[in-house]
Specification:
By secondary structure, the protein is of the alpha+beta class. It contains four helices and seven strands. The chain is globular, with a radius of gyration of 15 Å. It binds adenosine-5'-triphosphate and magnesium ion (MG).
């Protein structure tokens, strides 16, 4: 569905999703580090869709760290956008996975649907933003999300 765009505080949306996932992250031994810029500018976003994107990214990170690790969430203002980085110290992915991870139904997980990132990227694009990924096998993965400023 088309996003219903309103000025939003992305750090507040992140806090909501982190509260919602706190128990599952704790249970998985995942340490959360919040590195939010002071006065992060508002973005134009559909709050429900943005929550869904962050939930997908946090769950993927948890699943990539089966014996725990660190999840770092960074917000930074850019000229006409706000950048959010979600970085984990998980298993990372192969070059092959990196090339296909935004394709619908691409999954390396038993019981995975492979829709999480395809839907997330589609949501960001419909916002006039973007979602990209960097990953190093054995070291971790970072997703960088850009949203237009309000
Ligand atoms: N943080 C991450 N670290 C390592 N690999 C990842 C990470 N996030 C995604 N991936 C890889 O990208 C694939 C696609 O992710 P996506 O979220 O689209 O689907 P999924 O997690 O497999 O299934 P689901 O539909 O339940 O989310 C994953 O199967 C995994 O191989
Ligand atoms: Mg997923």
């Amino acid at each position: 569905p088309r996003p219903d765009l309103d000025p939003r505080d992305v750090t507040a949306v992140l806090d909501t999703v982190l509260d919602f996932t706190r128990e599952e992250l704790e249970r998985a031994g995942v340490n959360v580090v919040r590195d939010f810029a002071l006065d992060t500018p508002h973005v134009l976003a559909d709050e429900g869709q943005l929550r869904q994107v962050f939930l997908n990214l946090l769950r993927n990170s948890r699943e990539a760290m089966p014996s725990g690790g660190r999840l770092t969430i960074i917000t930074r203002p850019a000229e006409d956008a706000v950048e959010v980085t979600v970085r984990d110290t998980g298993q990372g992915m192969t070059e092959e996975a990196r090339q296909h991870l935004f394709e619908p139904f691409f999954t390396t997980k038993e019981g995975g649907t492979g829709l999480g990132l395809a839907v997330s990227q589609q949501i960001l694009q419909a916002h006039g933003g973007s979602l990209s990924c960097q990953s190093i096998p054995g070291q971790g993965t970072a997703f960088v999300l850009r949203l237009p400023r309000a």
